């Protein structure tokens, strides 16, 4: 819930922030942006420390309706890079993800 009123329903983002909790004053900083701006995506971490972002929703300027995304991106923190992975068979948003 955004009590500030800064969040808008069609305001999807590709920017990503990381938390530096290694010092006594936790601080957030920007890392590389995802290729696709999206909201309501599923995110999980993998055993190598990379982060997998799947699906989500966005909207196209030609239409006011929201669209489920099928895009999958993997973030490698060591290189601060995103790599596009094989897309999901169908677009999904507002779902959970887990990795083993």
Question: Could you explain the architecture of this structure?
Answer:
This protein has 100 residues and is mainly β. It has one domain. It is built from no helices and eight strands. The protein has strands at residues 16-20, 27-31, 42-45, 51-54, 57-59, 66-68, 72-76, 81-85. It has a four-stranded antiparallel β-sheet, with no helix packed on it. 10% of the residues are buried. The mean pLDDT is 87.
Provide mean pLDDT, rounded: 87
Number of helices: 0
Distance between the termini: 30 Å
Helix content: under 10%
Secondary-structure-derived class? mainly beta
The description of the largest β-sheet is: 4 strands, antiparallel
Strand content: 25-35%
Instruction: Trace the largest sheet across and list its strands.
Output: 3-4-7-8
Basic shape: globular
| Element string (H = helix, E = strand) | EEEEEEEE
Radius of gyration: 15 Å
Number of strands: 8
The parts where pLDDT drops under 50 for at least 5 residues are none
Number of structural domains = 1
